[in-house]
Write a structure and sequence with these properties.
By secondary structure, the chain is of the alpha/beta class. The chain is about 50% helix and about 15% strand. Strand 20, helix 22 and strand 21 form a beta-alpha-beta unit. The two termini are about 25 Å apart. The structure holds N-[(biphenyl-4-yloxy)acetyl]-beta-D-glucopyranosylamine.
Length: about 800
Amino acid sequence: EGYLEDGRTGMSPSTLKRAFLNNLFYVQGKFKALATPNDYYMALAYAIRDRLLQRWINTAAIYTAQGSRTVAYFSAEFLMGPHLGNNLINLDIYKDVEKGIAEMGLNLGELLEQEEEPGLGNGGLGRLAACYLDSLATLEIPSLGYGIRYEFGIFDQEIEDGWQVEITDKWLRFGNPWEIARPEWAVEVKLGGHTDHYVDDHGRYRIRWVPDQQVTGIPYDTPILGCQTNTANTLRLWTAEAPESFNFNAFNSGDYLGAVYEKVVSENISKVLYPNDDSSQGKKLRLTQQYFFVSCSLQDMIRILVGQELPLEKFHEKFAVQLNDTHPAIAVAELMRLLIDMHHMSWDSAWSITQRTFAYTNHTLLPEALERWPVELFGSLLPRHLEIIYELNDRFLDEVRIKFPEDDSRLSRMSLIDESGERYVRMAHLACVGSHAINGVAALHTELLKQDVLYDFYQMYPGKFQNKTNGVTPRRFMVLSNPALTELVTSKIGDTWIKNLGELQKLEAWADNPEFQQQWRQIKQANKQELAAYIQKHNGIIVDPNSIFDILAKRFHEYKRQYLDLLHIVTLYNRIKANPDIEITPRTFIFGGKAAPGYFMAKLIIKLINSVADVINRDPDVRGRLKVVFLKNYNVKLAQRIYPAADLSEQISTAGKEASGTGNMKFALNGALTIGTLDGANVEIREEVGAENFFLFGLTAEQVYAKRASGYNPMEYYNSNAELRLALDRIASGFFSHGDTELFKPLVDSLLHHDQYFLLADYQSYIDCQEQVGLAYRDQDRWTHMSILNAARMGKFSSDRSIQDYCREIWKVEPVTITLEN
Ligand code: 26M
């Protein structure tokens, strides 16, 4: 009573309100009559940021004082999604703030909508990094995320005449209240040039890198708050700037424009995220990005180490570095260079530290997606690193020779340099050799890595291989995105499941309780209604919330088989056209996802979905039974609306192609049932939920390999399956393209003549399985029972579990409790 809380830290509703109005006035310079929704968002964001800072500074102070062992998560992508809502959840003040905002006549949901999401990633790999930061903070593990502060993140997707159009993502347009620049910790990064081998004043042999370009890396820090803890870790992203002095000569010699040009070139390094999620292109700028953020980060870590008065020999004791795929794998050579050339350590000591520092996560089974760089390009950018890699390779191949004598083909298979044609540096091999642990991201994926993609490395270093099945954060993908379901669950089992997802199992006791079932259904229904309203607003299509919401949302890729989903849709359509009175469980097919701008087939599939949608949604014969919707610009924000509204989750990749998948986990956590193949983490999801609660179809990975080996002929399926033939013929006939028989020809032909991903082989099994889905949905009690069990059994797929496994089995780090005293 009468006591005034500190306006920047106090958590009471009245203090929060005062802080909000203060910020509106003093930060945004507005009063209510002139304030825009964005002003309100910013005023709230700054109020919340103030409350984070105290935790953030305390966390940093305690880590520094204790010299805590720290995880450094190196990733070219962090697909964070909007911060404000998540911070409200993790601070446990969402409800209070919602109420306070409402009392001022505003709507929190509308303010949250204002935040431009930081889309600094393509898809699964970048989102995984973001979930892991959330779990690391929640588990109170000292950790840093290191990456690139792209000025333009993943493009915004527009749809014009059914085609994907890319728009640059100007996410920093209105400023970013969540970051703080730290120019005092800027570092210099060298590029290009050549090396000098010389003898120093003390007669010692030394190597000097004489670069022809230099850039400055400026760190920008974002606090990563744990859930219901005082821990606030740091995401440190680097921006490239031209150094103040490097082009002084150019200025002196009067080449002003030349010097400014150099500045522009430097700043290009952190300009844009590459929008492809495979490694097909081999562009020099991409390698420059990778080296830039890795060098900045390792130098930063050395600064931290030295600041704590620890010797360089303790680098691997202070830090565990996780390489998120091979994108940061150049770190292996860079740490060697820093230790040897800059800090004069011996090769053997440097190598021992390097191997004990790094661990490598692989995310792909597609051999064509393994990163490799032409030796010439590599050497022109990183001449010293190429020398180091050659030396590493010599020593490594000696080791291989000792373990496997007289096996030249093994040597050339394992070499860090691919010499089968044009010469390439193989980044996965560098990562394997330079790391003490190598992991896949789901049990099946890890097994296939050992049997196939990394078979030789498994034979060489069996002890390095581990599995770490992916996980997702229940904070963002349940508590924040599905508040009604969160409340229902909490009313039955308390709220500790939020940090201990295994406790969801207690819901099994309620799976057949009629009242609980009804509440569960009502929430799903309300979530579907919200998505239906969104669809009406954005697509102008009216969908029926009583129909099955059958959803496929992920990046577009041939192996993910969006096209197989379409063949099912066209088959149902054909059935109705042939037999107008046929009984079909009404369905709304919803798609979302971006295609890489240069991926012709993926873009054509998007066009086909929109073309099929146009025809089906207009056809009175199917009214009330089928609708098809393509939601543009699938991103984290939209994903948070989609998962809670899904009845059916489509996880239909060709077995053996999807490393894990994480969308599959987010759907099931929100009570969707899965129709899926035995691929990636689907295998483990099915194990957890029980075969009777999972719609399985398709060939196994083994059967796919066998079929490929014995000569797969898709045409046989076409010839022998009338419904399949009708579906493909309908697409080829121009029925969905105003009579144009050329437009979709590449898609039809690729199935008939190649079908690399076995769509035709799996077609009938998929159709039959979908029939079972339709029947199951008609029995709503049975469906609800299955839905509850799916959510109840998702405990394993919390990213908290994944991170605990990484901590214990790879990183060997312990939690550090943060107190808020002082
Ligand atoms: C590489 C080089 C140049 C430009 C871009 C890239 C690149 C960027 C992203 C390559 C791959 C990228 O992402 C791959 C990815 O997202 N993989 C997915 O990772 C998830 C998390 O482990 C898995 O769940 C998915 O199965 C896997 O496809």
